[in-house]
Amino acid sequence: MIDQAKSLLKHHYGYSSFRPGQEEIILNLLNNIRTMGIMPTGGGKSICYQIPSLLLPGLTVVISPLISLMKDQVDELSEIGIPSTFINSSISSNEVNERLNLMRNGHYKLVYIAPERLDTASFTRALRSLHVSLVAIDEAHCLSQWGHDFRPSYMRIPELLNGMENTPAILALTATATPTVRKDICEALSIDDNAVVQTGFSRENLSFHVLKGIDQDAYIKEYLQRNKTQSGIIYAATRKEVERLYLAIEGSGISVGKYHGGLTSEERERMQEQFVYDEIQVMVATNAFGMGINKSNVRFVIHFQMPRNIESYYQEAGRAGRDGESSECILLFSPQDIRIQQFLIEQSMLSEDRKENEYRKLQEMTNYCHTESCLQSFILYYFGDTPSEACGKCHHCMDDRETEDVSRDAQMVFSCVKRMRERFGKTMVAQVLVGSANKKIKEMHFNQLSTYGLMKGKTQKEVSQFIDYLVASQYLSLSDSSYPVLQLTDKAVYVLKGEQQVQRKKEKKPTQIVKSHPLFEKLRELRSQLAKEGAIAPYMVFSDKTLNELCSHLPTTKAKMLSIKGVGDQKYERYGEQFLDEIILFIDENPDYSTTQTSVERNESDSVVQSKEKEMDDKIPSHIQSYTLYEQGKSLQQIAELRGIKLTTVESHLLQASSEGNDIDFSNLINKDTLELIQQAVEKVGMENGLKPIKESLPEEINYFSIRVCLHLINN
Ligand code: ADP
After folding, report:
1. CB 36 within 8 A of CB 171
2. pTM for the complete prediction?
3. Residues 486, 523: one domain?
4. Are the beta carbons of 531 and 538 closer than 8 angstroms?
5. 615: which of 206, 332, 522, 648 is 20 to 30 A away, CA to CA?
6. Whose Cα sits closest to atom 12 in ligand 1?
7. Measured in angstroms, how far is the CA atom of residue 534 from the centroid of ligand 1?
8. Cβ(15) to ligand 1 under 6 A?
């Protein structure tokens, strides 16, 4: 059975091996063992039910609260040749009945449904009458009242399962489950503790950062400038803050969108779509954004304010890097964030014990912002994992910043707070310290304090930020009142007495997340074009990870292309040739890269190529071997057959040989008129956008090789 599962994995998805946990879960399901899978975001949960759905006889029902994601999931499955559909509030009741009929007739292998459907008895009845072999429950933490996203409709799932005639296999999936939540889920669905497959919550490709007491606006601006071509999300706590940031970022020339509950649903949909389709780079949003997106190439998630608990933070931050490529999660912490969250809990309609629970979670979140040890490990401990070592790439693990002794400045702040009798907030204290001429300061006679103007060399903003830093580092605390006042903690008293020092690390400049391969942008453009033509999101054509693999392996044949992770049979049929053409063109224009490619080609186990190539001298580069055969009078087709390589590879070999100075008379291959036609087309549409627009402006029968030859002649 597992061999069959593996060949389906290769055929549909283009992957050669299972990720941790996947094989165990699939085997359990094939043996009808109720199973729970706890895997981090991007861990590959979908495959755990999609592959069994292909191996089991009937239908697989996937219950998911992520309604806006369903269409994308169904589109993605269709891209890889798996028939599926969805039923949620976006379709009419006629359409629902039609889809149910098609299910009855075995038209689909999978159906995604929203949990709210289970509130309707007639729908539950219809579902029970189908031959359901597997029920997968996505975001299973919604079953638990102690989770961060409880949904009452989820409570109907056990009822549905009990009423089904054949006993379907059951899979509960989640990325965020504390031990209490996990226990709740197992009890509700009668899952044995031994059937919980937990791969750990760690996300190896994410690096976590917490920055405190900095100029947040300036940081964001610089960060976006440095990472201009990358896709990212900036979360802010309120609609107002989203609007403000959106305008500020838009003004600096970055392509940005916004998303919050105050926009109309059309506006939200449009923004989301533009983001998913890579038409806008950065999305500024409240936490209303993200539940429904599966975009795999989000390279950074920045939190402008601290969220309420670690579960929400990890879920939101975890939207970065689903494709497994390096990505950053940055939290900009400022002490008043805690007060905002406390206020929101206080105002909520929760029962007293749930409020208590929320306060506890908020405290853990605050501790995360203050910890000085590995941030990834902190999160893992929170979820009950015991990481064996620090992550080695978070803010603290990578912290080689110089420290600065700021004890004297800190003493000035502390004594000012003390002299103002610990009855004023940050703004007033900062104004006194910089010697502000504000009327209120004079009225209160603060201009007569010995600390008045003590820090007049600094701006009020700088002093305010320094106070934030002192609060974040717990030298000062903010009172629990509607007008929070600064108070000294014990730590500050030691500093005032000169018994302890305050060290502050110099802030690092934002860095560039990834340095792109020169071919990456070209492949990305091609991906966008193809996605537009097919009206699907670019990541559905190929993920960033697959594009990166194409850049590092530079495959030039179908066999090699199929050995790239993420290139399955159907994807190759749809897009393979066009990507091969782009890669071959790149190699022509950048012969330096092809040297590495030649060695990669040799190392790979493409037996046909290797055995045929062995017949010739291994020391002669592959392209020269093709060139030599051409010089001996062989046609391109004959060379391809003789050497067991693709015709397009022979073509690029000739171009490479020519660009290295070997004499090739291309007029034997392409006549003068054709070359002239191509030349005119190039003049008209330009070369900047690759081959495709040139090809499209020419008669059908002129192939890509002729265009490449013409460009080669123009460039040499
Ligand atoms: P999750 O639902 O756990 O967040 P997904 O199911 O969306 O994760 O998978 C995340 C990414 O990992 C997808 O691009 C998926 O194709 C890829 N993936 C899943 N399983 C494998 C595998 N065995 N090998 C390589 N990539 C995989």
Report:
1. yes
2. 0.66
3. no
4. yes
5. 648
6. 44
7. 22
8. yes
